[in-house]
């Protein structure tokens, strides 16, 4: 267990690694995180004459690389030796003398399962999916966590962040694993910090987060037993599972700054940051909230709104005579999409609205373009600082294995374009009813034209130039004409 410096101060000098483990063969798992020792034995490290020196250098290596793996079997390592190694990693890198190994709060729960030899140990938490369902049955901040499909993005966490003094090192030992699945993933907090823009770095360094985990109290109450206390530190006592930690912390061993308490399973709120209180306008397949941009604030009324349709309806209702006038004139918008292609982005719901014809049209236009978003994703103009994070989110959301899975080339791409063109045929017919102008109502633009135009602007930005020209010419050129006619509305003044 370690004390936590914030992003600006460091009470001790960073530690320098020696050369005591340089003889061990290793492979860095990636440029930014992870190191694997394919042949090293921890038992040999313990029996070496310079064992403490090796453990200290190992600890510093872990702090620098984030996680290390010992691939060769370690069956000769006892539980007591595992505990000793974990304890020494902290002791040798400046852990407060009064602190020790963490104790899991729910050690007294009868649903905990023993180790392979049938024994239990308060410093060892045996991870088991079936036991976890019972242990965390009262966990309110993991909605639908036990149902499929599951948003595993909610599971990110730093170990024991719910404690005043979280763990400084954790030792995960795999004894029984399934043939597939059950993976544990790691991410570099250093890299997350480094990818922030300078203004966001400066802002985040001023913030703290409340890391509450009420499940421990509710589980104890439901099971009729006491929580373990203290838990590795005199500061980790009773039911105090709501500490505040810095969002950015400086690692006391390396001196490097890291995103620490900003996101994840144990974070309940960012302190001092006021919620906009704008409800989510869409839902993912697992029923989790999806928020959209843009968001507007009207200082005249104090209103805050998100999602294009809601904003347009508000502007029409509040300022009916401003701008180009009526955004929702009466018209028939009979365009319905029937498509079973998996969607990368949730669709707007056809909620009760004062403009139901337009709400339904919005849903179907979104469905038509979203169903073929794969044509555009490879050309998305990502911010270089967050490109990999954004790509990983698309991969997770679509349920594919990597970004390259989105690629459409050659015959497959041509077939997809043909399908897209055919799907837009019904939409094009709306624009051919009145040929006096480029809009559905001829010379008068409405919200219906704007929602189609917004998708066309995205196509212009994300399709190869030659393919965008193809789209412009589809169905007699109605989409190219609409795009050009809406240019006058592209800039808000």
TrEMBL record:
GO terms for molecular function: 2-oxoglutarate-dependent dioxygenase activity; metal ion binding. One of its GO terms (cellular component) is cytoplasm. Pfam families: GST_C_7 (PF22041), TauD (PF02668). Residues 404-489 form the Glutathione S-transferase UstS-like C-terminal domain. The keyword Iron applies. Its cofactor is Fe(2+). Gene3D superfamilies: 1.20.1050.10, Clavaminate synthase-like. It comes from the Eukaryota. Keywords: Dioxygenase, Iron, Metal-binding, Oxidoreductase. Residues 31-274 form the TauD/TfdA-like domain. Belongs to the TfdA dioxygenase family. PANTHER family: ALPHA-KETOGLUTARATE-DEPENDENT SULFONATE DIOXYGENASE, TAUD_TFDA-LIKE DOMAIN-CONTAINING PROTEIN. This is GST N-terminal domain-containing protein. It comes from Cephalotrichum gorgonifer.
